[in-house]
Amino acid sequence: MNDDKHVKVLFRVYSNILEEITVETMWTKVIDEVQGLYELNNIPFYLPIIASGDIIFAEFDEDEKMLTYRETREYSGNSTIHVILMDDTAELKNIGKPFEELGCNWEGMGNKYFAVDVPVSVDYVLVKARLEELKQQDIIGYAESCLSEEHQY
């Protein structure tokens, strides 16, 4: 086991939100290379069904020519929310900052889209309230792409 080793894994999964096959490569931390176990190290931008900290099984795929996701073995309890800015005057960093204050991490792509990582320890009721407030003001649209059991109510 090598605690410092990180590798990229290809994910090719169907997204109910986008209604198409979604492809994304993500950094993972090697947990057990022999058993094909890896821990997701970053926030998925498009992928449903997966969140940071999840332990996945991946194997080398001859067609893809790289490590490829096969299944999730252990869920972290974290959730992934995908957000799109609907208001042209809103700035990504200003919209993302309140989520940071609630204990979430987020990463932006361009100036209209970001993904929020909601750690298992964060009270999702507060995050959901903020999402709904921004949605009702027509500032954002969002999808609960991977909502953990710990965050469902």
Q: Describe it for me?
A:
It contains two helices and nine strands. The chain is α+β, with helices and mostly antiparallel strands and 153 residues long. The strands form two sheets. It has a five-stranded antiparallel β-sheet with strand order 1-2-3-4-5, with no helix packed on it. It has two domains: 6-74, no CATH class; 79-151, Alpha-Beta Plaits (2-Layer Sandwich), CATH 3.30.70. The N and C termini lie far apart (37 Å). It has helices spanning 92-101, 124-136, and strands at residues 6-15, 20-32, 37-40, 55-61, 66-74, 79-85, 105-109, 113-118, 140-146. The model has no long low-confidence stretch (mean pLDDT 92). InterPro entries: DUF4265. This is DUF4265 domain-containing protein. It holds the Pfam family DUF4265.
Structure characteristics:
9 strands; 5-stranded antiparallel beta sheet; 153 residues; alpha+beta; Alpha-Beta Plaits; 2 domains
Could you list the spans in which at least 5 consecutive residues all have pLDDT below 50? none
CATH class of the largest domain: Alpha Beta
The residue fraction in helices comes out at 10-25%
Count of individual domains: 2
Query: What is the H/E order?
Result: EEEEEEHEEHE
Any idea what the CATH architecture of the largest domain is?
2-Layer Sandwich
| Terminal CA distance | 37 Å
CATH topology of the largest domain: Alpha-Beta Plaits
Q: What proportion of the residues form beta strands (DSSP E)?
A: 35-45%
**Helical/strand content category:** alpha+beta
